[in-house]
Every structure is written in structure tokens, then in C-alpha cells.
Amino acid sequence: MTRVPNLPNPSNLRLGGLTLLALALLLAWDATGGDLALARLAGTPMGFPWRDNAFLVHVMHEGAKNLSWLFVMALFAGIRWPLGILRRLPACARAQLAFTVLLSVVAISLIKHASHTSCPWDLKEFGGVASHVSHWAWKVYDGGSGGCFPAGHASAAFAYAGGYFVLRRVSPRAAILWLCASLAAGLMLGLSQQLRGAHYMSHTLWTAWICWVVGFAIDLAVAPRASRLPAAETAALHAGH
What is the Cα–Cα distance from 126 to 123, expressed in whole angstroms? Predict the structure, then answer.
């Protein structure tokens, strides 16, 4: 068995500290009550004028979701038939990347299913029937349909953030670019849904954090095995450079 040389990358201890810092900032945002203030910028007592906007509905919502699932299928296909930078990863790392994306989406979906928080467009203030209740009040119903926390649509992009942990093994630069693209796309999707009244800003930010944590946790679980590759896989990895 041959151990792959360690490439320069931020230590897990440092990443853990940054993850906790992000958590503290998210909790601080929740405490400010800024969600409603931002929702009021797009909403009116008659509802959200951008709710049925064709571009936001068909491109940013439906189109982006379908494109994301195509990428997921491509990642799973890439386990067997890798292209591009995936060719520099061993099969186990390619599998980790694909399953990280899928499990991030599943995690967000499970939390949404258990949440009683309704969307901004459900609030009485914006022409709906619900009252504003913190998404941390798990046992409290707000009178709406619920199932709105965290932001499921933003996970179509944020779910890819965990790919950073896989790609940093072969290219720290590619890993950073991958992470930035995921975060930028997720923020755009979250903002488009906020304009429609489908989510609060905190819903989007929590989705990003949860997806990151899922990717981090998976990497911590598989990293010891990933560092002990068969000699044949190690040779193939170096051949890709």
C-alpha cells in the first residue's frame, strides 16, 4: 500500500474553526431579525410582484434545478468514465464527490420535511395566512403550509461545495474555484427565490452551511482510507498530472 503525498491545503483544524465562525455569524444574523427587513424590500401587502416572473420561475428555478440534476448524473457517470479534472482523482474520490453532492441535497430535503416554517409569501403581512415564527421554534406552527426551512432550491448549487474537500487533494486552486462557483451560484439561486418570496435570507445561508458541513463530515470519515491507495491507483493519479 502506498500513501499519497500530502498536498499543501488548509488543515482540518483551521477549516473547523472557520466552520464554527460561520455558524456564529449565522446565529448572529438570525438574532438581528434581518430576514423580515429584506423580505419587505421585495414584498407588498398584496404579495410578491416577482413571484411569477418568467425568468425567475422558468430559468432560475426550474432550469437551474434540472441543470443541477444533470450535473449530479454526470458526476456519477464520471466514477466510471471520468473527464477533465476527474481523471486526476482515483475512483474512490470520484465516488466521494458524487455522493457528497447527493447526500447534501438529501440532508436539506429531510430538514425541510421536518420544518414547520412557512415561506415569506405565506405571511399575513404579504397577503398570506401565516404569522412569522422563528425557524428554531420546531414545535410551533405558524399557520402556514410549513416546509420552507432551509432553502431547498439553493441546495442545487450549494450541494457541490463539498467537492472542495475532494479536489484539494489534487489541485488546491481547482478546489477553491469549485467552491467559489458553488457558493456564487447558490447565492444567486437564493436571491432569486427571495425576490419571489419563496425564502428568507437565513434559509439560503443555512443551506450553504449545512451543505458545507455534510461535505466536511464525509471527508473526515473517508480521508483515512483515501490516503491509503493501492499502488496501481497511485500510479494512475500521478500519470494524470
Answer: 5
Instruction: Map grid coordinates 455558524 to a residue.
Output: 23
Q: How far apart are CA 234 and CA 3, in angstroms?
A: 8
Asked if 159 and 215 touch (Cβ cutoff 8 Å), the reply is: no
47 - beta bridge partners?
Answer: 44
Omega before residue 90 within 30° of 0, cis: no
Contact (Cβ atoms closer than 8 angstroms) between residue 193 and residue 55: no
> How many whole angstroms separate alpha carbon 223 and alpha carbon 207?
24
Q: Phi then psi for 149, rounded to 5 degrees? A: -120, 130
Q: Please, what sign has the CA dihedral across residues 159, 165, 171, 176?
A: positive
**Quick one: DSSP state of residue 61?**
I
For the chain, helix (H) and strand (E) counts, in that order, are: 10, 2
Cα dihedral 47, 50, 52, 56 sign: negative
- In tens digits, the chain (241 residues) has pLDDT values of 444 444 444 579 999 999 999 999 999 998 888 999 999 999 999 999 999 999 999 999 999 999 999 999 999 999 999 999 999 999 999 999 999 999 999 999 999 999 999 999 999 999 999 998 888 877 788 899 999 999 999 999 999 999 999 999 999 999 999 999 999 999 999 999 999 999 999 999 999 999 999 999 999 999 766 555 444 444 444 444 4
CA-based Rg of the chain, rounded to a whole angstrom?
A: 20
Residue 11, Cβ neighbours under 10 Å: how many?
8
What phi, psi does 204 have (nearest 5°)? Answer: -65, -45
Name which of 118, 224, 204 is nearest 161 in CA terms.
204
